[in-house]
Design brief:
Layout (H helix, E strand, L loop, with lengths): L1 H16 L2 H4 L21 E6 L6 E12 L5 E9 L7 E6 L5 E5 L5 E5 L5 E10 L3 E6 L4 E12 L10 E2 L5 E4 L1
Antiparallel strand pairs: 1-4, 2-3, 2-9, 4-9, 5-8, 5-11, 6-7, 6-10, 7-9
């Protein structure tokens, strides 16, 4: 009788602990379909649409500054005589993903303008923009925005800055994120 109980108890224990697979049927493997999505967005780009132009002027005996705002306002400080003709702030047409945000980085230091036929130079500094420079300050509206840029031109005397045309270039960075 003890032996029969032991066999019965062993069979019961086998069934409860691990012998279930002996009597249960396995379920067929399940499957599901996964879906993937990817979106190609417009290329982020910036194009200069108008050049920074301080216009025509004549330096006086002390020189001075010409301040051109992004809103296209020009003011003169010092002994500089503003001449006739056009001037304008720079503008850049920025395009990309609709409602995309971007950063604007203006030149960190001064930019040198060089006389086209002489070794004389002028310096541009105090760069400003609308929208303002900084991280995430630009926001595309329907995939585009115009950025306006102004700066200050430092002009010496007529001896320092003789008659002629002065040219140069500068870099602005637009980072899309």
């Amino acid at each position: 009788m003890i032996r029969l109980r032991t066999v019965f108890f062993s069979l019961l224990l086998l069934f409860v602990t691990g012998g279930r697979g002996l009597f249960a049927q396995s379920a067929p493997p399940g499957s599901a379909t996964g879906h993937v999505i990817a979106e190609v967005i417009p290329v982020f780009s910036a194009t200069e649409t108008s050049q920074l132009n301080f216009g025509r002027f004549s330096p006086g005996p002390e020189g001075g500054k010409i301040i051109l705002t992004p809103q296209n306002t020009l003011s003169v400080v010092g002994s500089i005589f503003k001449g006739p003709g056009a001037f304008n702030a720079a503008s850049f047409y920025v395009t990309g993903d609709s409602d995309g945000a971007y950063s604007i980085t203006l030149p960190a230091g001064p930019v040198i303008l060089k006389h086209t036929s002489d070794a004389k130079t002028m310096v541009i500094d105090n760069w400003v923009s609308v929208p303002v420079a900084g991280t995430g300050t630009g926001k595309l509206q329907n995939g585009f925005q115009t950025v306006f840029v102004g700066a200050t031109l430092n002009v010496g005397s007529l001896k320092d800055n003789p008659v002629g045309i002065y040219t140069g270039s500068y870099n602005i960075t637009f980072d899309f994120y």
